[in-house]
Design goal:
The chain contains nine helices and 15 strands. By secondary structure, the protein is α/β, with parallel strands linked by helices. It folds into two domains: 182 residues, 3-Layer(aba) Sandwich (Rossmann fold); 91 residues, Roll (Methionyl-tRNA Fmet Formyltransferase, Chain A, domain 2), CATH 3.10.25.10.
Length: 308
């Protein structure tokens, strides 16, 4: 049985680790992020991948510096046949080349589209109707290596990034197993990523990206909300407080309201955009619980307009 090193950190990576472990592959090390302070008490919290590894007696490494020569020596000493990476971080060449058959990665998009840190968010935010998962051999340049397998799935109009994340997490685990099986039996055939014009990137999402600007199309805003829900969540300002927006409906229709105007009968909230209204359905005021708009409006003062 091949000797595997698995690298990953969040929940998204756990099913891939689990399926390899349950299928009997020899996982000689699990590499994950260092424990991080979390919560009000700042207690150190281990990653989801580390939790699974410890529960199943898999050896764990948590290097703070992947370029440390001592870490490279650790990898070489483990004599890995293959390294499997799922939702980890960029690797130096000294790590990429440590295994006999190379290092493979699971990416949550149909490469070469949506290379980068947030492929699920951006695919939904851009209004795509299809996405998927890709396994490929890692090269030095981000998400550019030869493709081994891909699987596609639709993005339905009502789905948000959380829905797609959960589906790709399961699909991805199956594809990782298929890929490792193919490499183990020497039947894997990798091919270069196709050249495409106007490829769409998936950079890391920062706070300014999440702010709703109502001078945009209501459909564009609605897709942005879907792409950022449930995390990190789109937001606007309500009576001087930050208001996260988790679910909306786009209502394209002509109107004469100034952009950002709030229209409501106390049961719904529509915000005027350049070409219609964005109806707010689920929101969360800073320091409060997430709730539907009817519950939110009880006791709230309406505002004349939201910031554009």
């Amino acid at each position: 049985m091949m000797r595997l090193i698995f690298m990953g950190t969040p929940d998204f990576a756990v099913p891939s680790l689990r399926i390899l472990h349950e299928q009997g592959y020899n996982i000689v090390a699990v590499i994950t992020a260092t424990d991080k302070p979390a919560g009000r008490g700042g207690h150190l919290q281990m990653s989801a991948v580390k939790k699974y590894a410890l529960e199943h007696n898999l050896p764990v490494l948590q290097p703070s510096n992947l370029k440390d020569p001592a870490f490279s020596e650790q990898l070489q000493a483990l004599q890995p046949d293959l390294q499997v990476v799922v939702a980890f971080r960029m690797l130096p060449m000294s790590v990429i080349t440590a295994a006999k058959y190379g290092t493979i990665n699971l990416h949550a998009s149909l490469l070469p589209q949506y290379r980068g840190a947030a492929p699920i968010n951006w695919a939904v935010a851009n209004g795509e109707t299809e996405t998927g998962v890709t396994t490929f051999f890692i090269e030095q340049k981000l998400d550019t290596g030869n493709i081994i397998f891909q699987e596609k799935t639709p993005i339905l109009p009502h789905e948000n990034a959380g829905d797609i994340h959960d589906r790709l997490m399961t699909m991805g685990a199956d594809l990782v197993l298929k890929t490792v099986d193919a490499i183990a039996t020497q039947t894997a055939v990798a091919h270069p990523q196709p050249m495409v014009e106007n490829s769409k990137p998936a950079p890391k999402i920062f706070t300014p990206t999440c702010e709703l600007h109502f001078e945009q199309s209501c459909v564009v805003l609605h897709n942005l909300v879907r792409g950022l829900s449930p995390y990190p969540a789109a937001f606007t300002t309500w009576n001087g407080q930050s208001l996260k927006v988790f679910a909306t409906e786009a209502l394209p229709t002509p109107h004469s309201y100034p952009i950002g105007t709030v229209v409501s009968d106390g049961k719904y909230v529509d915000v005027a955009t350049v070409d219609g209204f964005l109806r707010l359905l689920e929101v969360q005021l800073a320091g409060r619980k997430r709730m539907d708009i009817a519950a939110f409006l009880r006791g709230q003062k309406l505002v004349a307009a939201l910031p554009c």
